[in-house]
């Protein structure tokens, strides 16, 4: 790679391929693989990642909202795209872009069927989600009869899949609860499939579900965080490769005397006779939130940790480089797959890797490594 001269997010598609192949090795040969590429593919680059995964023969994609699916279509993605959080206002663009809506309650099911009838659709693919314990989106078990009655009244839609979402698949202390979710979903799916006369694709496993509950792989699995290099446990993360590396450079170095302060509200005051600080060109507008300030976060410069001091600014952070041999223009690693993982950085600030990586601003330049 050329020398880093600004803040960049390197995205290594070789690592993505490794993760895809590792996760796929856990599945039976006939189990489909759905890649979750919502939120810019977890803060990376959804277009590049989806196109690359199509080349690897992925079966399905999922996005949170319809406009994310539209962007993928405009980038040339052709595989089926499930919209996980369908909203009435987006029915038109869902149809125009051959996206497949998740219909999760009576209102949205009724409205989409009416819309499909008005548009003279025939067996348009839809997905039905059931709530088995996460209590976020989804029909309840006692809604099966209502769903069946609506489906039997129309030929405009056809159920492509039935699915649910595990609430605590990464926490083996919650194994009893997770197994109850799995068993409940299987019973619901069997009841509904029998009533409509055909069997849709069934899926309930997220990344941790894939790794911890092989019994629940069913017809398809959904992987998000695992594709991007994190397994929700040290054991599984060791088999995966983080695909993203956030790097920046030292803009300026200061020498601070005892009693002098750094940054807004004088949040950092030096109590040492001599402190050396470096200013870096990234801040909370780039995704490094204020929670990483005052020593909770750090960066790595020439192999040594440099804690973030003071309050994180919108466009800059300051770090303590006392004792580190470096100069202006040197490369700085915020997180990567080798020096510091996003999991480690996030844990130090009391959050999780998901929040850190999905929060990297779109103004940060993406550099794709193929």
From TrEMBL:
PTM-bearing positions, type N6-(pyridoxal phosphate)lysine: 38
Keywords associated with the record: Isomerase, Pyridoxal phosphate
Any GO molecular function: alanine racemase activity
Reactions catalysed, as given in the entry: L-alanine = D-alanine
Gene3D superfamilies named in the record: Alanine racemase, Lyase, Ornithine Decarboxylase, Chain A, domain 1
Any one GO CC term of the record: cytosol
Domain of life assignment: Bacteria
GO BP: any one term: D-alanine biosynthetic process
InterPro entries on file: Ala_racemase (IPR000821), Ala_racemase/Decarboxylase_C (IPR009006), Ala_racemase_C (IPR011079), Ala_racemase_N (IPR001608), PLP-binding_barrel (IPR029066)
Residue positions of the active site: 38, 264
Pfam family name, one: Ala_racemase_C
Matches recorded under CDD domains: PLPDE_III_AR
Cofactors demanded by this protein: pyridoxal 5'-phosphate
Pathway info: Amino-acid biosynthesis; D-alanine biosynthesis; D-alanine from L-alanine: step 1/1
EC numbers: 5.1.1.1
Domain Alanine racemase C-terminal: 243-369
HAMAP family the UniProt entry points to: Ala_racemase
Function field: Catalyzes the interconversion of L-alanine and D-alanine. May also act on other amino acids.
NCBIfam families in alphabetical order: alr
Family classification: Belongs to the alanine racemase family.
The protein's name in its UniProt record: Alanine racemase
Annotated source species: Hyunsoonleella pacifica
GN (gene name): alr
């Amino acid at each position: 790679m050329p020398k880093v001269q600004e803040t960049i997010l390197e995205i290594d598609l070789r690592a993505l391929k490794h993760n895809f192949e590792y996760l796929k090795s856990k599945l039976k040969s006939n189990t489909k693989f759905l890649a979750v590429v919502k939120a810019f593919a977890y803060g990376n680059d959804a277009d590049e990642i989806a196109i690359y995964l199509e080349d690897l023969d992925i079966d399905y994609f999922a996005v949170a909202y319809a406009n994310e699916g539209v962007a993928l279509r405009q980038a040339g993605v052709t595989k089926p795209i499930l919209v996980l959080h369908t909203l009435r206002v987006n029915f038109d663009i869902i149809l125009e872009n051959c996206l497949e809506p998740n219909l999760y309650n009576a209102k949205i099911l009724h409205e989409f069927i009416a819309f499909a009838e008005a548009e003279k659709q025939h067996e348009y693919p839809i997905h039905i989600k059931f709530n088995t314990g996460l209590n976020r989106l989804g029909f309840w078990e006692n809604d099966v009869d209502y769903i069946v009655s609506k489906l039997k009244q129309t030929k405009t839609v056809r159920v492509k899949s039935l699915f649910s979402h595990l609430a605590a698949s990464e926490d083996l202390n919650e194994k009893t609860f997770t197994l109850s979710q799995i068993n409940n979903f299987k019973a619901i799916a069997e009841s509904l499939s029998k009533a409509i006369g055909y069997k849709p694709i069934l899926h309930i496993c997220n990344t941790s579900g894939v790794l911890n509950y092989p019994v629940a792989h069913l017809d398809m699995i959904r992987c998000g965080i695992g594709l991007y290099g994190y397994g929700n446990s040290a054991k599984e993360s060791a088999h995966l490769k983080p695909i993203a590396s956030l790097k920046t450079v030292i803009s300026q170095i200061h020498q601070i005397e005892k009693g002098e302060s750094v940054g807004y509200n004088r949040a950092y005051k030096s109590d040492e006779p001599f402190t050396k600080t470096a200013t870096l060109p990234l801040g909370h507008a780039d995704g490094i939130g204020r929670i990483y300030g005052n020593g909770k976060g750090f960066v790595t410069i020439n192999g040594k940790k440099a804690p973030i001091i003071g309050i994180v600014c919108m466009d800059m952070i300051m770090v303590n480089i006392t004792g580190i041999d470096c100069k202006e223009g040197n490369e700085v690693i915020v997180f990567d797959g080798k020096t510091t993982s996003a999991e480690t950085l996030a844990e130090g600030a009391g959050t999780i890797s998901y929040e850190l990586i999905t929060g990297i601003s779109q103004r940060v330049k993406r550099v794709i490594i193929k």
